[in-house]
Amino acid sequence: MNSIEMKNFDKADETRTFEGHGFADFVMVGGRTVARGHFEPGWRWSQDVKPIVGTDLCQVSHLGYCLAGRMRVTMSDGTEQELTPGEVAAIPPGHDAEVVGDETCVFLDFGEIAEYAMRK
C-alpha cells in the first residue's frame, strides 16, 4: 500500500444485526476488518449472537477499546471481567458476554472479527 486508506463507520462496508439487541458495523481498511459494535441493554452473546453462529460460546478473538457502556465477559472456566469506557481488552475465544446496566456498550474491535455474527 502506497497511500493512506481511510474509512468511516457512518458509511460502513457492512452492518450485521444481532438477534435482538444491537448491531455491528464493519469496515475493511489496510487489509483488515475493524468493527464497531453497539450492544444494547439486555444484549447477551448467548441470546443475541449464538443463534446466528451456532456455537456454544463465542469463538472469536477480540482486541478492542470500550467507548461507552459496560460489558461483563465470562470465560469458559467461569472467570469474569467487566469492561468499562476507556479500557483496552484482549479477549480470547471461549467466552460469553453481556451488557451491564442500561447504557449501550460501544466496543471498537481490531481482533479476528471478520466473521463475527456472520450467519453460517
TrEMBL record:
<dbReference type="Pfam" id="PF07883">
    <property type="entry name" value="Cupin_2"/>
</dbReference>
<dbReference type="InterPro" id="IPR013096">
    <property type="entry name" value="Cupin_2"/>
</dbReference>
<dbReference type="InterPro" id="IPR011051">
    <property type="entry name" value="RmlC_Cupin_sf"/>
</dbReference>
<dbReference type="InterPro" id="IPR014710">
    <property type="entry name" value="RmlC-like_jellyroll"/>
</dbReference>
<protein>
    <submittedName>
        <fullName>Cupin</fullName>
    </submittedName>
</protein>
<feature type="domain" description="Cupin type-2">
    <location>
        <begin position="62"/>
        <end position="109"/>
    </location>
</feature>
